[in-house]
Amino acid sequence: MTESKRDHSLNLAPASIEDYREFARRRLPRQIFDYIDGGAFGESTLAANRDDLHRIQFRQRVLRDVSSRSLSTTVLGEEMSLPVILAPLGFAGMFARRAEVQAARAAERAGIPFCESTLSICGIEEVASAIKRPVWFQLYVMKDRGYAEDLMARAQAVGCTTLVLTVDLPVVGQRYRDGRNGISGTLPTMKRLRRGTDLFSHTRWMRDVALGGRPLTFGNLEKALPNARVPGDFQGWVASQFDPSVTWDDLAWLRQHWRGKIALKGILDADDAREAVARGADAIIVSNHGGRQLDDVPSTISSLPRIAAAVGDECDVLMDGGIRSGLDVVKALSLGARACLLGRPWAYAVAARGERGVDHMLRIIQSEMLVTLGLTGVNDVRDLDRTVIVEP
Prior knowledge:
Blueprint: H1 3-8, H2 17-27, H3 30-37, H4 44-55, E1 73-75, E2 78-80, E3 84-86, H5 99-110, E4 115-116, H6 124-130, E5 136-139, H7 145-157, E6 162-166, H8 176-181, H9 189-200, H10 203-211, H11 234-241, H12 250-257, E7 261-267, H13 270-278, E8 283-286, H14 300-311, E9 316-319, H15 326-334, E10 339-342, H16 344-376
Parallel strand pairs: 3-10, 4-5, 5-6, 6-7, 7-8, 8-9, 9-10
Antiparallel strand pairs: 1-2
């Protein structure tokens, strides 16, 4: 089927985030879609993130006045119109033309934060200059700590309020889809040819992203690594640059160079959550990297209640992993999260329809949350707790 015929079937607006996933699958080269969509090893944790959310059931409550419902909340002192944040996504500028800028503008219109990745295609200055709302910045610590110090200085210079330190990537997980598609490792000649055919057969993507989205470099690393181009062996390049020696003691070093809030992303264990609080984290993000790091670990929604109970009110607890609807967000908030980070949902949306896709995806989340609140008899997301959930 030609790309033009495929695109003709995408004229109807998607009704759900799963629809956006299908749109993205058709529009992107397979290697890029699989980079977004895939997980580590056998992808059991990737599936568990979704399956465990599906198993949670709501208590349907009736004859309550739900004529007025609010989705507003506060995270790290920041007012938000919706309890979601657009998560940091490395490589995002390969999904759509200057995708980080498009997503940041959509987030600002929705009244929520956008979090810029260390490995974004668009640099932090480009993203921050496109909006008025402060951007969050996600940090990977490079082996030369001077790189990280430079990134923090740049983020603070453009007004970033929150630093998200990703702590679950001391080494890169085995992502088999990326290996098969040539995102990691080296490929024999025939596979390189197939990879090239995959790219060039998607003419819309070639025109809009490969050509129209230049420069396709890691914008945040150009000062530190002038030759940092988007590499063929993406995982190998990451593994050679990231520092696996980072420990809890490095949080003191981080505090020396960052004046704002600090959130630790990648907490999956209650003992680690307690340690994070003891070391002064302002927030923790319950995350297994979307199932892209260690496989056969618990889903984030199953880990959330233990972690929320372990830290209580000592810091804000956020969650990502498996969120595909407003119902999922309500479930996470009912089990202890203050807000959720959306990663794949905005990746699918921006790949499918650009900025307007991210706008629409967020409206879907908003609408689904309002309906869910109404049918569970809740007026305000800040009142959500375990009483909304059917206990096993």
